[in-house]
Amino acid sequence: MKIYKEAALPSGFKASGISCGIKRSGKLDLALLYSSLPAKAAGMFTTNKIPAAPVILCRGLLAKGGLFRAIVINSGNANSFTGKKGLKDSLATAVILAQALGVKKESVLVSSTGIIGRRLPEGKIKSGIPGLIRKLSCGGMKTAAKAIMTTDTFPKKVTAKLNIGGKVITICGIAKGAGMIAPDMATLLVFILTDMGLSRGLLNRALKGAVENSFNCITIDGCMSTNDSVILLDNGASGSSKAAGAGAFVSFSRALNAVCLELAKMIVKDAEGGSKFIEIEVSGAKDFNQARRAALSIANSNLFKTAVYGENPNFGRIVSAIGASGMVVAENKLKIKVSPLKKRDILVNVSLGIGKAKAAVFTSDLTPKYIKINAEYN
């Protein structure tokens, strides 16, 4: 397996990105991911109890277990807290694109990100779709990665290539996210394409495991979005499913985990206003969930995050955060070690002294710049 921090599309896929005028800045704001073959899909979405319209639409479509041909994504407008009209707008986007592509409307997934509480500018999206389709290309994933950005400062893209059953398999993922990042189905948008050819059941299993160990192990500000989505499409164009051996699923899952973890780390490194990349490793726990719970309690502590920003080795804030997690920890067994705070990358090691399980969580510091970015976000 080889990992590249670039976007190389799997067989049978094309992508594009354009500006259709949703963003006042004129930056790219509409992306399209297209498969020439019907693709199976797996998805995980926000647990926010006020989900955005495109999340509701995609959940419904995936629950029916159909095949998919495209994902259309807009940035600059979340189409969230828009009620029945928002659902109508998401469906209209899917219908317009489906008609232009000559595919069924049920084969089109829709995703949005941006300002909450505003209806989608349907006219702008409709006018942009013909150009979006014309620009579809095998190299278009780079442009698509830019078109889904909001407060991101750089596009996030990763590709894995591996050999399974004598066939070269490609897994290509793009993501957006820099703020409103909290776990429990990651707060972000992620789109992953592959030509592997797994069954729907195995595809869901692979994605769940990958998300659990990557996007659900990051936090920037502890704020959960209404639009969180991770969608995986598999069109099987490589033909590997016919030649793959018993270890094919394990190999694929390992590669998918690597892609998701790289994207997750990129999101934290692009944290709004962040000046530090912090990895918190908790060991000596009863199980993975307990270790992650302790790590997240530290990562979501504003006192800890500001101490790191100020390069202030006040380890009492780590102790306090662990105690606040609700776990029973023996004080005399607790061990804490922190790398030099003057560096960009910070490592926090915590041993609970309870068991043998461990987990790693990634976060950033909390800076005045974060406050400025979000105070002015409109």
Our Rg estimate from Cα atoms comes to 21 Å
Distance between the termini: 42 Å
Largest sheet: 9 strands, mixed
Q: Quaternary state, please?
A: single chain
Number of strands: 13
Q: Mean of the pLDDT scores?
A: 92
Question: Into which percentage range does the β-strand content fall?
Answer: 25-35%
Number of helices: 10
Estimated structural class: alpha+beta
Range of helix content: 25-40%
Series of secondary-structure elements, N-terminal to C-terminal: EEEHEHEHHEEEHEHEHHHEEEH
Q: Looking at the structure, what is the overall shape?
A: globular
Q: Could you name the ranges where pLDDT drops below 50 across 5 or more consecutive residues?
A: none
Write the topology of this structure.
Blueprint: E1 2-4, E2 13-18, E3 30-45, H1 53-63, E4 68-77, H2 83-101, E5 108-115, H3 122-134, H4 141-147, E6 156-164, E7 167-176, E8 189-194, H5 200-212, E9 229-234, H6 248-269, E10 277-285, H7 288-299, H8 302-309, H9 316-324, E11 335-338, E12 345-351, E13 357-364, H10 368-375
Parallel strand pairs: 4-5, 8-9, 10-12
Antiparallel strand pairs: 1-6, 2-3, 3-4, 3-9, 6-7, 7-8, 10-13, 11-12
Helix pairs in contact: 1-2, 2-3, 5-6, 7-9
